[in-house]
Amino acid sequence: KMNKVSMITERKIDGFDASGNRAEWELNALKQNNFTDIELIDEFNENKVSKLSNNLIHAQQLSGRLLKNHRYIVDAHGLEFVFSSHMVRGYSYYSWRKWAFLAKSYHYKKLETKIFKNSKHIICAGENILDKVKNIQSSTLVRNAVFPENYIPTQCKKLKIALVGPFLPGKLNYYGFGMIQFLVKKFPEIEFVFIGPTNKTFSDGLQFKNTTFTGQVDNYIDTLRTCSVLLAPYPEYACYLGSKTKFIEAAACQMPIVTTPIGNLDFQNDYVCLGKTNNDLVKQIDYLKDENVRDDLGKKLKNEILKNYNANIEIKKVIKLYNELM
After folding, report:
1. How far apart are CA 168 and CA 139, in angstroms?
2. 1 exposed, middle or buried (CB, 10 Å; 0-12, 13-18, 19+)?
């Protein structure tokens, strides 16, 4: 019997990178549930493979491709091949980027399928991922989650809109620029607060009296809670499966969420305000001008978190898997 589990991730676990976040809450939840037979190896690469004993490996994202004859579970936060194949649609037939994304998508599909097949099990961060992989390997849904007790409801009484980055080229949030600019101009009386690292081209295109850029903040949740609504528009082609951490965090703070249908693939519930076009998004923001509407949606979202996105509940599925496979 193996004495413990090694969790590996190629990211640095510093509380900032979103796909590092998943490893982070899982580790915290394991500790809180008294599962201590686990070590974390972050910034994992070929040179660290020799450090692995014959433990069961919990391999985040695509890190399983680096393993040789190890027994491992894959933790799929999103599917790169789905992301790349959707991105193809964002570019014209003649763009080299279109062909680069197509080639990437093909490459990732082969790579991901291989990683899944060689694994002992797949942990999926969302229902849409589960649907795509459950025929390849046995799989379990473990949603992205938070510790609800760590989130105090927003105290903001007016309609004030938060957008959460990073707003950097190549990151999904960046592609929402056109829609965001339209809304900022449309509602000069509403303050829009951009939280997280932001590229100059992005902020230069949004220099209006009603925009504020915080840059990277240490107290991210406190900054989020100074607003009353989260806005996160994504164009149709910017698709990444897996529930977005910022949606769950906003919902845990009882903040309504305005997004586009593609942004909401794995946070399916009746309480998110969806708009497909710029004008749909305008209607949703108008609807949220009513404080009673915001309060009501906020409470329903918080409830959804307690039931379905609760780290204390989700982690029990992971511990069960460890115990079966260790």
Report:
1. 33
2. exposed
Cβ partners under 8 Å of residue 279, min gap 6: none
- Give the residue carrying structure tokens 């099990």: 121
Beta pairing class for 229-232 and 257-259: parallel
| Cross-strand partners of 211 | 192
Pick the closest to residue 76 from 28, 148, 128, 33 (CA basis): 128
100, 282, 302, 316 from 148: Cα distances, Å:
41, 30, 8, 16
Q: Beta-carbon neighbour count of residue 70 at 10 Å? A: 20
Residues 80/63, Cβ–Cβ less than 8 Å: no
Query: Which strand (E) or helix (H) includes residue 98?
Result: helix 96-118
CB count, 10 Å around CB of 106?
13
- 196-199 contact pairs (CB < 8 A, 24+): 196/164, 196/165, 196/166, 196/167, 196/220, 197/165, 197/166, 197/167, 197/168, 198/165, 198/166, 198/167, 198/168, 199/167, 199/168, 199/169, 199/174
Give the amino acid at 168. Answer: L
Q: In what order do the strands lie in the sheet with 211-215?
A: 211-215, 192-195, 161-164, 229-232, 257-259, 273-274
Tally helices (H) and strands (E) across the chain: 11, 12
299-325 in b/e form (b: 16+ CB < 10 A) is: eebbebbeebbbbebbbeebeebbeee
Helix axes 96-118, 80-87, angle to 10 degrees: 160
> What's the pLDDT tens digit per position in 268-307?
778 999 999 999 999 999 999 999 999 999 999 999 999 9
Q: With CA atoms as reference, report the closest residue to 225 among 157, 132, 305.
A: 157
Question: What is the sign, positive or negative, of the torsion defined by CA atoms of 278, 284, 288, 289?
Answer: positive
DSSP bridge partners of 194: 163, 213
Residue pair 126/242 in contact (Cβ under 8 Å)? The answer is yes
The pTM assigned to this predicted structure is: 0.85
pLDDT at 75: 95
